[in-house]
Specification:
This protein is an alpha/beta fold. Helices cover 31% and strands 13% of the residues. Strand 5, helix 5 and strand 6 form a beta-alpha-beta unit. Helix 1 crosses helix 6 and helix 5 packs across helix 10.
């Protein structure tokens, strides 16, 4: 895969490079990640068209554990459950895993986060998803994909750093920066629900601000420029959260791709507000 000043090479693959991977002779596994907060099963969309050989991945059942309470709405999956899915997806130690989506970039980023957290060495987020891949001439079809054959073993999870609610609170109190990846309206809040508002001391940085009009991640320099306006350099780590750990995964991906030590509070605001001892702030930055 190529790397130049116009890409985010560390964790991201361009559509052109993903197309090249299809015929490279390397062992590549494509994961088609579907997610909608309002619709449980999107497998029908996948069955209509997906990247050739791509496995269907349901975020709600395969990329999260059982949510609720202080765990938040979308905790990380149990290692044993994830191990079973890795085997079903045919992932081996030498595999290049390419995660993508057809409509919600943060869904693919959640897959990237979970797999990197589990210790998979070579996971790439497909910039622009299915649409960009097709535009670059990539092969798609509606064929069923055989499962099984994966031999990668999770030896030790937690290979990406995460934060607890207490660590977020301590980081803010120590002067550290924590970004809320939800939209500005959700951050400001109107008091209409328990999830209205934000963690006191956090700042708003919607994950969508790191994408262009075509859903592509901004160039490295553009992301660094945005971070500079927020007072972020290359020093201390940055905390990231959202509503339930999906949009925050996209922001974590983007920040880590430009060398920022971004750490996701996986439980996010859903976990924060579940604790009656945690206060909630409202209003813009």
């Amino acid at each position: 895969m190529t790397a130049n000043s116009d890409t985010l090479p560390t964790h991201v693959v361009s559509a052109a490079d993903a197309v090249a991977l299809q015929s490279s002779g390397r062992h590549v596994v494509f994961l088609d990640v579907r997610f909608s907060p309002k619709q449980q099963d999107l497998k029908g969309e996948y069955e209509l068209e997906h990247i050739s050989t791509a496995h269907y991945v349901d975020l709600k059942t395969q990329l999260q554990g059982i949510g609720g309470g202080l765990a938040g709405s979308r905790p990380l999956p149990e290692t044993a459950d994830l191990q079973k899915n890795i085997a079903l997806w045919g992932i081996r130690p030498e595999t290049v895993v390419v995660v993508y989506t057809s409509g919600t970039p943060a869904a693919a980023a959640r897959a990237w986060f979970v797999l990197k957290w589990a210790g998979l060495p070579n996971v790439r987020y497909l910039d622009g998803g299915l649409a960009a891949f097709k535009a670059a001439g990539g092969r798609t079809d509606s064929e069923a994909v055989p499962t099984g054959g994966g031999t990668f073993v999770i030896v030790q999870a937690e290979q990406l750093p995460t934060l607890t609610a207490g660590e977020v609170d301590d980081h803010i109190k120590a002067g550290g920066k924590v970004f809320d990846a939800r939209g500005a309206a959700g951050f400001a809040g109107d008091g209409s629900s328990a999830r209205s508002g934000h963690i006191p001391g956090a700042r708003s940085l919607p994950s969508t601000a790191l994408l262009d009009a075509n859903g592509l991640l901004l160039k490295s320099d553009a992301i660094r420029s945005i971070l500079a306006t927020k007072g972020v350099g290359s020093g201390d780590y940055i905390g990231v959260y959202c509503g339930g750990g999906v949009a925050g995964a996209l922001e974590t991906l983007a920040l880590r791709s430009v060398g920022i030590d971004a750490r996701l509070f996986v439980g996010s605001f859903s976990a924060w507000v579940a604790d009656p001892d945690r206060s909630v702030a409202r209003g813009s930055d």
